[in-house]
Specification:
Layout: H1 2-14, H2 18-31, E1 36-41, E2 51-54, H3 58-66, H4 74-81, E3 86-88, H5 99-110, E4 115-123, E5 126-135, H6 139-167, E6 173-174, E7 177-178, H7 181-191, H8 196-203, H9 207-221, H10 226-236
Antiparallel strand pairs: 1-2, 1-5, 3-4, 4-5, 6-7
Helix pairs in contact: 1-2, 1-6, 2-6, 7-9, 7-10, 8-9
């Protein structure tokens, strides 16, 4: 699978937005017969929304972010407490689930997310992100796939995180105003002529959520409408 990894690295080097990162990882995961992945960047302050790149079903990711399930998810809790990759959903988990956590797992299974490999990513101050490769396939098939490719999957997770942190999720500043990464991302797509509905399809969020981020960006920038916000972005962007 060396050629799969090398192609993945090459595509990351060429990627500069969440869509390109998403497609690079989705294609690499598919080469290992892994049906979906999720990269979750976890804020330290407990208030900032988590950032997500994922090939999970959009209905599930929208619900997960809206309900702030990252604060409840036992998989993410374990990723906070250890550095080694771990598998879950294979019948040997050591989670002591609350009623709400069990409900979360039940909801995930309705979307075909029944077992996974989670790779915690930490820096000198603790956990910063996690990458999960998940599947609804038969347990032993999934286990063999993971055990055969665990090292390269871990390297892929590390590389994705390094590129995303450097290229995507520094809080961008526009006209001396600090926007959230998602606000800036939605504004960038709007500047390319995409409607709120189209942006939602690209980012796998609802049109209403896109409108929310765009309205927040407009208010922070102190302009009256989206057209003015876009004009400000274009005027301050390098040629």
């Amino acid at each position: 699978m060396h050629h799969v990894f090398q192609k993945f690295v090459d595509r990351l080097n060429e990627s500069h937005d969440a869509v390109a990162f998403h497609q690079a990882m989705a294609d690499a995961a598919a080469a290992f017969d892994l049906s979906c992945f999720a990269y979750l960047s976890m804020p330290r302050d407990g208030r900032t929304a988590a950032a997500l790149i994922s090939s999970y079903p959009p209905g599930w990711t929208e619900r997960y972010l809206r309900e702030h399930y990252e604060r409840l998810d036992p998989v993410i809790a374990l990723a906070h407490s250890q550095t080694d990759p771990f598998m879950w959903g294979l019948g040997s988990d050591h989670f002591e689930l609350t009623e709400l956590q069990q409900r979360l797992f039940d909801e995930a299974s309705e979307f075909g997310i029944r077992c996974g490999l989670t790779i915690p990513l930490q820096d000198g101050r603790g956990p910063v992100a996690a990458v999960t490769f998940a599947s609804d396939s038969r347990r032993e098939v999934f286990r063999r796939t993971i055990e055969s490719n665990s090292r390269v999957l871990q390297l892929m997770a590390i590389d994705l995180h390094a590129h995303a942190r450097r290229k995507l999720w520094r809080d961008p500043v526009l006209n001396s105003v600090r926007l959230s990464p998602r606000e800036f991302e939605c504004l960038q797509w709007a500047a390319k002529g995409k409607s709120a509905w189209a942006i939602g399809q690209i980012l796998q969020i609802s049109r209403r959520t896109v409108a929310f981020h765009l309205d927040n960006a407009r208010a922070k920038l102190g302009v009256q409408n989206l057209r003015q916000a876009v004009a400000l972005l274009v005027a301050t962007s390098p040629s």
